[in-house]
Structure to design on (738 residues):
């Protein structure tokens, strides 16, 4: 008997990886709707190999098969590769809208921008600054804008591993089942509220900013020094009004 | 290269939204398929029936049956790798044969799932009665059916993850029990060949063909993971894997159980071979009453898992049809908290429990109900599989991804399926005989009539047939594909 040897990538595997990447590039170049046969023709790959690799990439969600089942498009995972890099700078018009809201409410108002799988604190309230914006960006399960983003995912566990539900305070939701229940409430209400899950004495609410097509692009976050979730929830009505205006600017 | 993005629009929400998305691991998806197939019950019951038909050719016959089912499974993976369906082979068929072909296949599939759920319910009740030392008289079995049916519905409505996990535990338990019992029996000392040896080593004749058909029926339900397109994590990977691996694993188990039974039954009297469960009979005669109880427990749990598995699949096919507008929209609702198609599931329950209970109370023996329902379900499944295999090359051609191998495999599987269906329909020697053929055709008739009525009177309602969990705005790179305008 020959001893088992871990031979790593051998034989035809490097070629398969190269072909898969070439297919990814070909779909990116051709744009949404390109068919399997077109990809095979452009790359000069055997059809059966192309179809197999396309199905693999679709299975891993780097590519998506469009509803007609013929065409392909880049999947949301592609944007996850770049994390926050895809965030565009905030326009002055949007900053002015946020500043106007700050003048109307007596609490911290921040604007958070989303990519498909991450968030970025784009405009932090200068009068009531966030204590630690990086906590919001890293611990999506704890903060209100993070919960809003997770509620939008087909499967939040794609974005956040269940074993990474770190306990920041005693009240942080740390069990996958509890987070599931919270996200259901977020979806039903259309906004996310948390109290004491990031810092013991702070509560916040996140109101979604959607593009005219309905895609979640940003969130207006209000923070209140309180341990009661009702306190930030009371501020969501004005925030919603401004979120509608921001949607047209950011979408 | 042509740019095709102009015509493509993505919806904001999937047409099958409402089910709990992307939660089931591969093992849980596999458990759905395995429970739909009820391997332990098949391991104990099928080899002896095949032995009676095929004699010394039993093992090759079962190998051929396994190969045929794996071929069908391979055909189905071509759909499963490309679309995450909730309607199983029904939704697949729609993509190749159009709405009318799909409705015929879908109705046959509904008959398959419903009838096998009935059979498993009765089976579970019979073996549970045996376990507690009760006489499995029709009223006792009917009572147990109602209780088990309620329990099964509770599991399925409460959540797919719960019922998949229950099924996984029950299947592991029951398969190990059956394997243990067979191993113990093999170790027990055996005397000279018994009177059954003449049948076990009997000559090979045309009965082998019937044997293959009977062998195939042991695998029915193996594709039921195809109804978990929304609920499975990474469905385009885990569903095809489950659909392909279930018949492979079940085939190995079935062959091992058959090999053991060939050895055991060779030295047994003929009346053991012709008894309903020869392995249990052998254990009884060897004075191993405990083994028999263990076997009863194993079969009862396997059958119960099959009830939940088949009801899950049945509910999801009904749910899909309702979302398409083919059936009343109420059946397409999902439970707000459990995120299961609870209306479809609770509609299926009275049928699955009611039919066997009424038949039992009208005086039929539990075993006759069990085998009769199994026969009807086998007809339904095979018809659904044949249509799906036939649809596969057509589907691949329509999306421009047809290669020679799937074309050959699809045609081969469809031809073999049609031949099997012919043998089964014509073969009076099959369990339930001709009566079950007419029961199946009677059950199929409303589906055919409904399909024809829709085709001629309301073709608009057929337009949506074939819905699946399509890509939405959230599944692509943001901004890369235009969004469908909200109506």
């Amino acid at each position: 008997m020959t001893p088992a040897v871990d031979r790593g990538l051998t034989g035809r595997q490097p070629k398969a990886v190269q072909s898969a990447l070439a297919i990814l590039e070909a779909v990116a170049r051709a744009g949404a709707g390109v068919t399997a046969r077109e990809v095979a023709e452009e790359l000069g790959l055997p059809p059966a190999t192309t179809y197999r690799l396309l199905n693999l990439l679709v299975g891993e969600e780097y590519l998506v098969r469009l509803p007609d089942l013929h065409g392909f498009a880049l999947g949301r995972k592609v944007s996850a590769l770049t994390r926050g890099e895809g965030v565009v700078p905030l326009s002055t018009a949007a900053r002015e809208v946020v500043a106007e809201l700050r003048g109307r409410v007596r609490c911290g108002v921040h604007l958070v921008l989303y990519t498909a799988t991450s968030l970025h604190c784009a405009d932090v309230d200068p009068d009531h600054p966030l204590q630690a914006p990086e906590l919001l960006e890293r611990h999506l399960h704890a903060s209100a804008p993070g919960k809003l983003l997770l509620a939008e995912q087909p499967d939040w566990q794609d974005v956040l591993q269940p074993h990474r539900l770190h306990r920041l305070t005693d009240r942080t939701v740390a069990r996958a089942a509890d987070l599931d229940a919270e996200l259901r409430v977020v979806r039903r209400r259309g906004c996310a509220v948390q109290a004491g899950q990031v810092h013991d004495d702070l509560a916040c609410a996140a109101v979604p900013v959607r593009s005219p097509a309905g895609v979640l692009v940003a969130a207006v976050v209000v923070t209140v020094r309180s341990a009661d979730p009702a306190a930030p929830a009371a501020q969501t009505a004005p925030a919603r009004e401004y979120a509608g205006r921001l949607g047209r600017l950011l979408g | 290269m042509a740019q095709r993005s102009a015509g493509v629009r993505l919806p904001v929400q999937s047409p099958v939204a409402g089910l709990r998305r992307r939660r089931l691991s591969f093992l849980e998806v596999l458990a759905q398929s395995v429970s739909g197939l009820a391997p332990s019950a098949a391991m104990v019951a099928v080899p002896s029936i095949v032995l009676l038909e095929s004699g010394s050719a039993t093992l090759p016959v079962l190998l051929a049956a396994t190969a045929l089912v794996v071929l069908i499974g391979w055909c189905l993976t071509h759909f499963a790798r490309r679309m995450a369906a909730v309607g199983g082979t029904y939704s697949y068929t729609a993509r190749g044969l159009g709405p009318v072909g799909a409705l015929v296949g879908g109705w046959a599939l509904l008959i398959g799932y419903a009838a096998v759920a009935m059979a498993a319910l009765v089976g579970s009740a019979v073996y549970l009665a045996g376990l507690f030392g009760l006489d499995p008289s029709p009223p006792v079995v009917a009572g147990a059916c109602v209780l088990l049916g309620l329990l099964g519905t509770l599991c399925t409505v409460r959540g797919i993850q719960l019922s998949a996990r229950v099924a996984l535990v029950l299947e592991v338990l029951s398969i190990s029990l059956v394997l243990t019992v067979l191993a113990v029996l093999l170790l027990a000392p055996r005397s000279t060949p018994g009177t059954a040896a003449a049948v076990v080593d009997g000559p090979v004749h045309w009965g082998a063909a019937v044997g293959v058909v009977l062998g195939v029926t042991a695998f029915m339900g193996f594709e039921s993971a195809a109804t978990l397109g929304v609920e499975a994590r990474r469905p385009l990977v885990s569903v095809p894997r489950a659909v392909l691996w279930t018949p492979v694993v079940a085939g190995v188990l079935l062959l091992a159980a058959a090999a053991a039974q060939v050895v055991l039954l060779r030295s047994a009297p003929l009346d053991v071979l012709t008894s309903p469960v020869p392995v249990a009979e052998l254990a009884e005669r060897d004075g191993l009453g405990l083994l028999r109880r263990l076997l009863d427990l194993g079969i009862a749990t396997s059958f119960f898992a099959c009830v939940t598995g088949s009801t899950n699949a049945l509910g999801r096919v009904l749910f899909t049809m309702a979302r398409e507008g083919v059936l009343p929209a109420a059946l397409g609702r999902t439970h707000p908290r459990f995120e299961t198609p609870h209306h479809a599931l609770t509609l299926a329950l009275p049928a699955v429990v009611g039919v066997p209970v009424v038949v039992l109370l009208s005086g039929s023996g539990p075993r006759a109900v069990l085998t009769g329902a199994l026969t009807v379900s086998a007809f339904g499944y095979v018809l659904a599989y044949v249509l799906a295999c036939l649809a596969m090359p057509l589907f691949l051609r329509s999306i421009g991804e047809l290669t020679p191998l799937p074309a050959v495999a699809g045609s081969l599987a469809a031809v073999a399926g049609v031949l099997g269906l012919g043998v089964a329909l014509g073969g009076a020697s099959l369990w339930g005989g001709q009566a079950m053929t007419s029961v199946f055709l009677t059950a199929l008739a409303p589906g055919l009539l409904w399909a024809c009525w829709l085709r001629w009177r309301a073709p608009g309602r057929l337009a949506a047939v074939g819905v699946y969990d399509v890509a939405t705005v959230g599944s692509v790179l943001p901004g890369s594909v235009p969004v469908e305008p909200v109506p």
Remarks:
- Chain B is about 70% helix and 0% strand.
